[in-house]
Amino acid sequence: MSPVANASSAWAARISAAAALPSNNPGTLSTGIETLDALLKGGFPRGGITELTGPVSSGRTALLFSTLAQATQQGETVAYIDAFNSFDPLSAAKAGIELKRLLWIRCQSLERALQAGDIVSRAGGFGVIALDLESAAPAVQIGRGMKKPSYHCWLRLRQAIEGTPTVLLLLTREAAVGSLSSLVLTLKRKQSFWQSSSGMVESAPGCHLFHRIGTEIRIVRGKMNGHATFCCRFQ
Amino acid sequence: MPRFVAVFSKDLARVLALAQTLTPRVEAHPPDRIILEISAREESKVYAQILKTLKQPFRLAAASTRTAAVLAASRANPGIIVPCGKEREFLAPLPIQTLSLLGMPLKRELLITLGNWGIQTLAQLASLPDTELVARLGPAVLDLRKAACGEDCSLFQPFIPEIPFEERRELDFTLLTLEPLNFILGQLLECMGERLSETGQAAESICLDLKLENGGRHQRKLHLACPIRDPKVLLSLLRLDLQSHPPTAGITGLNLKMDPVPFRVFQYTLFQPPVPNPEKLSRILARLSALVGEDNIGSPALLDTYRPDGSRLHPFGMGNQETKRAKAPSTYKASPLLALRRVRPPVPAQLQKTEIVAWTGPWRSSGEWWTEDSWNRDEWDIQFKNGTICRFYWHPEDKRWFLEGIYD
Questions:
Q1: Could you give the CA distance from residue B136 to residue B120 in angstroms, rounded to a whole number?
Q2: What residues of A are in contact with residue B402 (Cβ under 8 Å)?
Q3: Which helix H or strand E contains B116, and what residues bound it?
Q4: Are residues B284 and A119, on separate chains, in Cβ contact within 8 Å?
Q5: Please, where are the H alpha helices in A74-202?
Q6: How far is residue B122 from each of residues A107, A210, B78, measured CA to CA in Å?
Q7: What's the gap in Å between the CA of A5 and the closest CA on chain B?
Q8: Is the Cβ–Cβ distance between B275 and A125 less than 8 Å?
Q9: What are the b/e assignments for A108-139, b being 16+ CB within 10 Å?
Q10: Nearest to A230 by CA among A72, A56, A58
Q11: Mean predicted lDDT score pLDDT of chain B
């Protein structure tokens, strides 16, 4: 064997493949929804930005509350940055969130919400930081007359939580973070079920008891592909 | 082996000040008695120093026990040193009434009984057998007998001077901006922070009282999320608070006061999920309060009422959270609950029948009719053609529809 071949074989034994290197992944946080956890291989990635997008009444807030409930029930402290004061404590308590472990910040504007997000993410120690940039009022929506947050703003947030066990969940109508997000999920309402005198009906005209909605969730950006479905029960 | 020096003087404050320069272990018994614990090697030096320094009439005695020193001081004029091991002999001729100097209760009946037995001196009391004495006079008399032998009946209780956690500054010139005030506050907090560290305490709240040029006052009280003693953190909290609540006129003086509480070291464990550092948490809460206002930050709590949106914000703190061990496996529910996203305040709406697909209602809600803040309305859940499911309510007095929230 030539000296060059000898040297290369010796180095090959000492250099390990990139796939075999230990990962610096701080883990995942369960969403509380079995089908979604199975799709995401454990839940939302910690140390990254996850975007929950979709139209209204698609179950985004239900998914967000379910994740917050999982985190608080494990003893983690969570923060809810409410850009337009739409958080409902009663719905949160019914979803299983331990309200004592929740820091609710009512910002009344998008700019303040982003500043508050920056402050909270740099403090460390929060299991989940939920940045709710969606307004319940129909007239207010990011991108329609409202200034979109700059790329640097998301970059600061991403750098603040990178490598930490914090999940930054962003609730918007459309994806806003771009390439800086670790995961982008889009939720779509498939059908609504109403309880009538003749049994369960799907969006039938008339007066019925509202029962549940069926939601399809699709991974738009992330390490894996696919979709899952789940139901959101009416309170 | 320690030695004890007992000093009787009417000028207790002066003797206490002198004693604290001689030894850190001082026991004070107002109105006239002080006991110093010193080492045997320093005994003669301390004894001489006290004799030399005190001017007013006093009595002084040094012995191996506190009891012996106090009792011996009654015979001193002005001072006496009882040799080590000779306490009992020295105290022997003293009358039993001398024990009252120790603050022990000497009942009249007891003295009469002992007098009837012919017991007049400490030596005679010390010579009585324990068992028989207790059988006749009760267990409390054992302490008297022990004291008559020159032995201590109680533990040494060192005098801990009260440390003031208050600082006052009168300024020669008026401060018109907050920047120079930060330097003064920084100096004061450094001094107070050292005192807190020395005493193992931390500030639970800070009260800043600014004296203003126009004769008014500007008072701010900060309730901290957890006890803090780091001066830098305290300064940044005060600075943030003053930025959001600036004084209305120039500052001519200030008074800074702290409420100290025992400092608790926050310890993380392997099995506890990560939580925010208490000191950092206080700082971020102050920054967030400055950003969004104190009323817009906290922990939500539900009120015991059927009133729509009946909740309140409580101050957020780590103290009101019990620690939990991290749970590894998650428990899955059947399906999550649909949440309501509230519109605050509810906006008037016009409903078009052609847009509505399905509805449920009305759900009548009313309450507190006996107050001015009563409510009365009919709630409806309505699904529109585009799939949006909203909660509306009909206000019978206004005769209008209002959008209360959207299900999501």
A1: 17
A2: none
A3: helix B108-117
A4: yes
A5: 89-95, 110-123, 151-161
A6: 79, 93, 22
A7: 49
A8: yes
A9: eebebbbbbbebbbebbbbbbbbbbbbbbbee
A10: A58
A11: 86
Does the beta-carbon distance from B292 to A233 stay under 8 Å? Answer: no
Which among A75, A127, A232 has CB closest to B323?
Answer: A75
How many other CB atoms are found less than 10 A from the CB of residue B175? 19
Q: Which amino acid is residue A198, in one-letter code?
A: S
d(CA A100, CA B300) in angstroms, rounded, equals 7
Q: Do A119 and B291 touch (CB under 8 A)?
A: yes
What is the b/e burial string over A154-185, where b = at least 16 CB atoms within 10 angstroms of the residue's CB?
Answer: beebbebbeebbbbbbbbbbebbbeebbbbbb
- Could you read off the pLDDT of B260-309 as tens digits, one per residue? 988 877 777 777 777 788 778 888 888 898 899 889 999 999 999 888 88
Contacts of B333 in chain A (CB under 8 A): 32, 66, 96
DSSP A8-39: HHHHHHHSPPGGGSPP----EE--S-HHHHHH
DSSP B269-301: -TTSPP---HHHHHHHHHHHHHHH-GGGEEEEE
- B315–chain A Cβ distance below 8 A for any pair: no
Burial (CB < 10 A; 0-12, 13-18, 19+), residue B261, is middle
- Averaged pLDDT, A177-200: 85
Q: How far is CA B50 from the centre of its chain?
A: 37
Q: Using the beta-carbon criterion (under 8 Å), do A232 and B336 form an inter-chain contact?
A: yes
Q: pLDDT tens for residues B218-274?
A: 999 988 878 888 899 899 989 988 988 899 999 999 999 999 988 877 777 777 777
Angle between helices B43-53 and B12-22 (to 10 degrees): 150
Nearest to B355 by CA among B313, B388, B317, B400: B388
Q: Decide: B325 and B272 in contact? Cβ < 8 Å.
A: yes
Chain A nearest-CA distance from B185, in A, is 24
Q: Do B327 and A75 touch (CB under 8 A)?
A: yes
Q: Compute the Cα dihedral for B21, B27, B33, B37 and give only its sign.
A: negative
Tokens, residue A162: 């990178």
State how far the alpha carbon of B354 is from the alpha carbons of B13, B385, B386, B395, in Å: 91, 9, 12, 22
Q: Is the peptide bond before B31 cis (omega within 30 degrees of 0)?
A: yes
Q: Which pTM value belongs to this model?
A: 0.71
